[in-house]
Inverse folding.
């Protein structure tokens, strides 16, 4: 289990009553939380719970309807371009260009992230060595197995050492061993001081996070460490916690 680093640490996400409305529908309803430097923060919830809406607001891609949020020290209303420079992002749908080689992808994204030519060359060499992809570096990304694509995609998302990396269902569809290797990369980024904000459907992965929030119907229902949540819900696993929350939400409808 990863150690909790949140005590007395620098806040890199500050969120207060953040809300997003689409007409009469409230996709994210007054969500309030803080995330700390180097923390692995799990953002859980069923499909349609409001997770992606919240991430889009925090990444500067969607303007909130009301509330307040600061990401990497920048305001989500007024400083979205600064936010984008200080974060990495990876989605389940895979973030790299399949018709470019590994090195071409590294070069392309390194340029977008504002790295110098030398930084791109050095970081690119280190990245392919670390992932043991030297022999594949000049091959098209499309030729890689899904697990390798996901690990490469994550490594490129943190190439510029962002303050925060947002991972939206990053391990969907990959085998358990590759998921475990992917989480080793997450731990490594966290140790370097990068905050990891991750959504996942896999409740066993929730156990790897320092703290977890669970969204139900646009509201943040709980926020705590995995061990505290299991104690509070008298549960032996995060699956049980999630099930109890979903059941109580249905009863209150």
């Amino acid at each position: 289990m990863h150690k909790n680093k949140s005590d007395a640490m620098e806040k890199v996400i500050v969120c207060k009553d953040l809300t997003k409305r689409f007409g009469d529908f409230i996709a994210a309803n007054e969500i309030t939380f803080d995330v700390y430097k180097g923390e692995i923060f799990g953002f859980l919830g069923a499909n349609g719970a409001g997770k992606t809406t919240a991430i889009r607001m925090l990444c500067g891609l969607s303007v909130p309807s009301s509330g307040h949020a600061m990401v990497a020290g920048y305001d989500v209303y007024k400083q979205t371009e600064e936010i984008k420079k200080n974060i990495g992002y990876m989605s389940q749908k895979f973030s790299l260009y399949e018709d470019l080689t590994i090195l071409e992808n590294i070069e392309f994204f390194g340029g977008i992230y504002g790295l110098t030519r030398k930084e791109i060359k050095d970081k690119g060499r280190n990245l392919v060595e670390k992932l043991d992809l030297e022999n594949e570096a000049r091959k098209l990304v499309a030729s890689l197995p899904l697990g390798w694509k996901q690990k490469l995609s994550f490594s490129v998302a943190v190439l510029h050492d962002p303050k925060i990396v947002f991972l939206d269902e990053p391990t969907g569809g990959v085998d358990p061993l590759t998921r475990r290797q992917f989480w080793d990369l997450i731990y490594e980024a966290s140790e370097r001081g990068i905050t990891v904000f991750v959504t996942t459907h896999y409740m066993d992965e929730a156990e790897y996070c320092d703290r977890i929030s669970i969204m139900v119907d646009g509201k943040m229902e709980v926020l705590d460490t995995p061990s505290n949540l299991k104690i509070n819900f008298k549960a032996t696993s995060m699956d049980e916690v999630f099930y109890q929350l979903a059941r109580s939400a249905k009863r209150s409808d």
Summary: The CA atoms of residues 107 and 121 lie 8 Å apart. The first strand starts at residue 11 and ends at 22.
